[in-house]
Amino acid sequence: MRPGTAQTVRGTLLDTESSVPVAEALVLLVTERGDTVARTISDALGAFALSAPYAGEYYVLASTLGYRTLREGVFELGAGVEVTVEVRLEPEPISIAGIEVSRSGVAEPPLVRNGFFDRLNQGNGYFFTPVDLERTSAVRITELLGRVPFLAVVNAYPTDRVLVREGGKMCAPSILMDGVLASQIQGRRGSPNQISGSEGDLEALVSLKDVEAVEVYRGGREIPGQFAGMIRAECGLIVIWTKRR
């Protein structure tokens, strides 16, 4: 649970036979359990750089047309550590007739597609990563959010409320789940008094066991632009990403 410090793998992709740089290859940084945390495309010199959001053990996966997909590693990245590698790809003949080939064949996990790890690496807000949630002792979403320094969990009937502390005052943050306002989710479920878009019953909204990652922003300029147009920014924002999307 952190804004993370950068742990980086820098390297160069080369052809095993000719030592020519391999440009425009998809390069992924993947945890040992298979979660992709960063992606990039190698440049004209075959160079790439991938930053991990938290310390740990990772491997590099490189894939492009005309070469065998390669997994390199494991690399142990401590906090703030930078590793430099040279990755050599083995050419693989391909048949063109009757097939359709796409460089996007390596699927991106949702947290990469939705920009979660990019936002974490920018250093704004407070984050619970999949690793944090795997290790947490919290059993409820409100218990987890109560550990954020600028949030307060207030006991209120019929359910606890999560509020943002700001300038000696407290106000209710907006809530997005999988990119959708909580009020819109409430409307789909047909329970008009259960959940609102800015406070409401988080326990009714989602069970902690179904949560994959969480972002919390205090408000104002801290809130990423992609979310700012959807909410009232003055009271902050809680973004919940679930495993079931």
What's the topology here?
Elements: E1 7-15, E2 26-31, E3 36-41, E4 47-52, E5 56-63, E6 70-77, E7 82-89, H1 110-113, H2 116-122, E8 126-128, H3 130-135, H4 141-145, E9 151-154, E10 161-166, E11 169-171, E12 174-177, E13 180-181, H5 182-189, H6 202-205, E14 211-217, H7 225-228, E15 237-242
Parallel strand pairs: 1-7, 12-15
Antiparallel strand pairs: 1-4, 2-3, 2-5, 5-6, 8-14, 9-10, 10-11, 12-13, 14-15
In short:
By secondary structure, the chain is an alpha+beta fold. It has helices spanning 110-113, 116-122, 130-135, 141-145, 182-189, 202-205, 225-228; strands at 7-15, 26-31, 36-41, 47-52, 56-63, 70-77, 82-89, 126-128, 151-154, 161-166, 169-171, 174-177, 180-181, 211-217, 237-242.
Q: What does this molecule look like?
A:
This protein has helices at 110-113, 116-122, 130-135, 141-145, 182-189, 202-205, 225-228; strands at 7-15, 26-31, 36-41, 47-52, 56-63, 70-77, 82-89, 126-128, 151-154, 161-166, 169-171, 174-177, 180-181, 211-217, 237-242. It is of the alpha+beta class and 245 residues long. It folds into two domains: 7-107, Immunoglobulin-like (Sandwich); 124-242, TonB-dependent receptor, plug domain (Ferric Hydroxamate Uptake Protein, Chain A, domain 1). The chain is elongated and about 70 Å long.
